[in-house]
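Weekly puzzle thread! Below is a chain. First person to post its structure in token form gets bragging rights.
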Amino acid sequence: MKNFIQTTFIFLFILGNLYGQQEKGIIGTANWLHNWTEFKPNQKQYDEPTQILAGNIDKDKKLVKRETYMLLGNVFVTNNATLTIEPGTVIIGDFASKASLTITKGAKIIADGLETDPIIFTSNRGIKRSGDWGGIILLGDAPTNKFGNGSVASLYSDLSQSSYSFTNYGGVNAESSSGILRYVRIEFAGKRIKNDDYFDGLLLAGVGNKTILDNIMVSYSGGNSFEVLGGDVCLNKLVSYRSNNNDFKLNYGAQCKIDNSLAIRSPYISSSTAARCLQITSYNKMEEVDFTKKGTSVEAKNLTFINDSESLKSDIEKGLVKDAVFIGQNANLNMNKSVISGFNPAVILESSIHINQENLEKIQFANMYFNNCNGNIFLENDSNNEDLENWYGNSTFFNVYSKSNNAETFIDFSNEKRPDFRLRINKIIASKDATYAKETVGIGN
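Winning reply:
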């Protein structure tokens, strides 16, 4: 009996440790990417448009699956109207008119797709490319840290004077709702506006926390895949795939929880000028913001950030691979149980951040898995990261460091149709030594 109890205890202990390791990165008892995602959207064909969406939608309107819609020019949902979209509906963004869809303050979108019948926003070009059309913009009345309210008017070309009021965001209602985006794909958005300005795949400005934002995939965006300006949002099961710019960008006092989400970068597609998986700042210019208001604060849990390089060393030497995470001054990040694989380095802190206990307690990394990165956590423009490595390498943070290729690290990395980017624990060679020194310990068999 005693031996049985001891054996059972050992089994449960091992099982518990395995389960603990499985918790890093995106999680799920099944692969939640199945059915609704698409990793080869340029090969998909859709019916010709049967309906046109243009101008202002100022009354409640429903889009139905049996029709295919063409988004023409800048379309605004105004006057507290609700735009409802049936599961399986396809909306095609027009290339020539830089089509975009904006849900203005007080209005709502109910785009509630199904796992087996997602809602799709895509390009009307025969050969689809990043930045073919504008993107989707949600404007709410949740707080920002700006003086007064914000505006996204600069995004729109040829905007009439009467439409400027439709571009404002921000207010005092953190619990407001701009509707639902669930099981939605946004493909080939992020049209270039001028110089280095681009639309985003999905822009959330002053959006409140009653808005439901789950299971959204942005593919081949010319701008950022997801950008959050102020507001208070919860993001769950988001996918950014081969974005030209940042995967997740947060600014102007955004209060944000990101959970169980994925970003896959390609050095052959992404911009070589500081495009990251996650960029967190509190302002672009200090004079824009009120420092009595909350700065940007992000809670990130179970994220997986992957750089897909055929030859990581060569791509780093060519300057094609950058850091995965950038944190600016006066911004807070609590990142937990996440995977960062194949970057140069994993994390950079803005040079103006003083490396002391007070600031480091605002930037937390715990239960992390840093894999195959050319360095881990650095201060911008400083090659000596000994203090940071000592801090985050402390055993109390339970961070793990490894050198494994992506195929060994993830369950089914190379499957073009049904990839699985959950962590494969039985093939990982890991070390708690942040400098990858001599001894490594195998996890699993």
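Puzzle host: Confirmed. Bonus trivia for everyone else. The longest strand covers residues 255-265.
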